[in-house]
Amino acid sequence: MKLHEYQSKAIFAQYGVPIPNGKVASNADEARQIAAQLNKRVVIKSQVLVGGRGKAGGIKVANDPDEAEQLADQILAMKIKGLPVRKVLVDEAIHIAKEIYLGVVVDRAAKCATMIGSAAGGMEIEEVARTTPEKIVRIKIDSAYGLLEYQARALAFALGIDKTLVRDFTAIATGLYRAFVATDATLAEINPLAVTAENKLIAADGKIVLDDNALYRHPDLEQLRDIDEESSEEQRARNAGLSYVKLDGDIGCMVNGAGLAMATMDVIKFYGGAPANFLDIGGGAKADKVKTALEIILSDPNVKCVLFNIFGGITRGDEVARGVVEGLKGIKTRVPMVARIVGTNAEEGRRILADANMMTAETLEEGAQKAVAAAKRMQ
Amino acid sequence: MSILIDKKTKLLVQGITGREGEFHTKQMIEYGTHVVAGVTPGRGGEQVLGVPVFDTVAQAVAQTDANTSVVYVPARAAADSILEAADAGIKLVVCITEGVPVVDMLRVARRLAETDTRLVGPNCPGLISPGKSKVGIIPGAICMPGPVGIVARSGTLTYEVLHALTQRRIGQSTCVGIGGDPVHGLGFIEVLEMFQNDRQTKAIVLIGEIGGTDEEKAAAFIKKNVRKPVVAFVAGQTAPPGKRMGHAGAIIEGGTGTAAEKIAAFQAAGVPVARFPGEVAELVARRLARAKK
Known about the structure:
The complex is a heterodimer. Chain A has 3 domains: about 20-90, ATP-grasp fold, A domain (Dna Ligase, domain 1); about 95-220, D-amino Acid Aminotransferase, Chain A, domain 1 (2-Layer Sandwich); about 230-375, Succinyl-CoA synthetase domains (Rossmann fold, 3-Layer(aba) Sandwich). Helix content of chain A is about 35%, strand content about 25%. Chain A has 13 helices and 19 strands. Chain A has helices at about 5-15, 30-40, 65-75, 125-130, 150-160, 165-180, 220, 230-240, 260-270, 285-300, 315-330, 345-355, 365-379, and strands at about 1-5, 20-25, 40-45, 60, 80, 85, 90, 95-105, 110-120, 135-140, 185-195, 200-205, 205-210, 245, 250-255, 275-280, 305-310, 335-345, 360. In chain B, helix 4 links the parallel strand 6 (about 90-95) and strand 7 (about 120). Chain B is globular. Chain B is about 35% helix and about 20% strand. Chain B is α/β, with parallel strands linked by helices.
């Protein structure tokens, strides 16, 4: 789950990271009042959970409260990469002399948290990694001790931080790491960490991505969820304990297991079709889950056919088939369905499904081909 | 032979009194796994399916000489259970539990690095050495003993491959599900090395998916160190960037972790990559036939 800039910066501030004075506004009038209170030039920053806000025109400087109101009004009417702007952050404008990147990520390969710094701040770090990898400094953090001060100092020197700012930088780096651990983040990033014209360090932008698996111990952070980040179907799936991602194609997929679900999408594409979604219904195929999953899939008007791909391992194929048939009850649709069941008692399972007027298939390849053909017929 | 588990495996089940724990304990016993103990704090002295239950792993190990443990406890307790097993001297811990916070796994990895305990998982189906022992949730009925070693990041996709191999009467030495989380225990490289050194294993199947760069590293390792034929499959060619595809680790981030890069890495290492799961068994059959000549 991603947090907005204003939420992320507020968390960083709790850990001693300096941030610009500012407040979030939901309408132009609020933006004017905040600008008037700050009584300085301000930056109006759209709060949407995508990158490239500046390029899209979602970040503007206002010289006075009138202009702040006017620009906030404009930005609040925007959609950036399909996401509506519902809030703007009104921050005092800072005079940036130099931009630094500072982030903490989960290093999958090294199995530790790693702090990443770069003197090329302001750009996306992936872009820096691609074009000038020598500008990136990495520090592995031992979770038993946290980020040690000498490590933070070494990073400051490696990034060419002014000697008078090393102490401040060390406090910011250790604060950022503590925020990462305290929120159970998978990413905590200050980009840019600005060196101001007055030679001060300040977090001009911030981003936190939380670990969904750890949200249970952060009910306060769960409250910060932006409902626009997910489609309503994705929200419904999450509440039902289903893993669902909407895609652009026309063949709905219902599969047990994430790896098999991805492979099913791939096979559909291999045979010239396009998957409408990723959906993992988890172990077995219980009637209630099948029903909810099918309702979610069919709520997408693009769907012209649904392909079930269920591996009956410990849950036998015939039990899976009965769950599917039971789940289909009460769902009215003309969308054709193809079911492929494999594993223990698969033949019995296929017979049950055929009796319920579903097309059946023995192999995934056969199922995908039938689904692609059925979707074409519906066009 | 086989790797990691065999007839000598004496298994302890952590969370044996839970619904999942008890269900799969029954399955494992029926398969022939030597389940010697269970642990559920506060339920010591009870029995589940004839297996004695202990309050702590240390007590269970002292009384039963268990050498392997499988963890079915809820996600919030999983990291603690893994470390309890390691501290009690268990040499192989298999964590089935899904949804373990990644920060917990960073601590687990840090601690395990100081021990000689190996971890498989979390968020994995466990492992099976067909005809000898199964630890976890892989359905025994779709496996048979034979020459193919399997290492995979997913569950049901692996079953799909196991089932297809068995239908062709191609058996398996050991199948290891290493799990779908970004930070996990044994990786492709460690398991590939074990298969390379295992006499029963004549060919290896590697099943990867999007996210991270483990497949690329495995490809480089295979090129340099693995002399047995390897066949690969990579799931997620149609996955969009930035979206987590079910598994916490299956996400394309910052342009890395795509299926295309992984497939290219395997091909560059001379490893044939199946276009769809059904093709894996076909490629393995061909490679085994060639190896016999």
